[in-house]
Amino acid sequence: MSRRRTWLPLGVGGGVLLLALVVSVAVGSRTLSPGELLGGLRAALDGLATDPSAGVVAARLDRTAVGAVVGLAVGLSGAAMQGLTRNPLADPGILGVNAGAALLVVLGVQYLGLSSAAAFVWLALAGGLLAALLVYAVSAASPGGATPLTMALAGAALSAGAVSVVAGVLVANRGALDTFRFWQVGSVAGRPASLLLDVAPLLVVSLAIVALSGRVLNAAALGEDLERALGQRVQLARATVALGAVGLAACAVALAGPIAFVGLVVPHLVRLVTGPDYQRVLLGSAVVGPVLVLLTDTLGRVVMPPSEVQVGIMTAVLGAPVLIWLVRRTGALR
Fold first, then answer.
1. Burial of 98 (0-12, 13-18, 19+ CB in 10 A)
2. Across all residues in the chain, what is the average pLDDT?
3. Alpha-carbon distance 299 to 310, whole Å?
4. Angle at Cα 318 formed by Cα 82 and Cα 325, nearest 5°?
5. Within 10 Å of residue 52's Cβ, how many Cβ atoms?
6. What are phi and psi of 123, to 5 degrees?
7. What CATH number belongs to 3-330?
8. Where are the domains of the chain?
């Protein structure tokens, strides 16, 4: 691929991302004019509460920041997991991250009485990481080692078990159900940008690992024998990339709850433009992921006024037909 063909899509994607950021702040139940947007932005940055648009802009800035980070994390995590497992249906749920996070959040609500978003962040982070480590330990202990198949099977088994425990707790405690369901649906509404500081250390480390994993993922696509022939320490390389992908997924789930289909669909959309080279796929996913989350979140605010549809529902509603289209038109999942 020529340099022009490499950077032109990236430039277009960057422009679309900038537009999505602006639309996310300007559009909602109350759409701001350019003058109101600029005035509210200046007032919000200066801490002036007297401007009527300042509160709206400040809340949407928080929502936009969280949505962009969640989209970045889920998009990159999905791309890395698909390359690592050589499974085109892989997403952050394949290693049990979502189920582990949900289980620990429910247990925290039930037995610790927690109900704040800040508390959910730490519970979801711990649950997602512990679940992924357990999945890897179980698959590594199998006769064939931690192969894509054994990791997928272990993830499915852990997810089924965790979902059963979650359902049992919620059936027994209606109050826990009322608290948990607002997190479980997947939403960036009401999440202060300060939550980003809570996940920043893990987010930065995981982002660095995945961003630099393009060559490892390209080698993984060739198979383990060729990976060894290329001089890679296969298990160490795969474990490092898996740790980064799980870290990103755990950060996203901690911030917004489980966001469906983004990690699954984004890498396929990117590959339609970039081809199979994972160095380009990762770069494209880092752009398309935030765009998809921000635009679906914005659409959810205006599709059923005066109420709104949470972004986790919108991504599922829009992601399912996109995935079907990819299968029928491009054979992307074959």
1. buried
2. 82
3. 10
4. 65
5. 11
6. -65, -45
7. 1.10.3470.10
8. 3-330
What is the three-state SS of 48-88?
Answer: CCCCCCHHHHHHHHHHHHHHHHHHHHHHHHHHHHHHHHCCC
Rounded CA separation 81/75 (Å)? 10
Q: Mean pLDDT, to the nearest integer, of 192-196? A: 89
> For residue 187, what are its two tokens?
């939403």
Other beta carbons within 10 Å of 270:
24
Q: How far is CA 78 from the centre of its chain?
A: 8
Q: What is the DSSP string of 219-278?
A: HHTT-HHHHHHTT--HHHHHHHHHHHHHHHHHHHHHHHS---SHHHHHHHHHHHHH-S-H
Rounded Cα–Cα distance for residues 145 and 225 (Å) = 14
Q: What is the mean pLDDT of residues 193-204?
A: 90
pLDDT confidence tier of residue 5, bands split at 50, 70 and 90: low
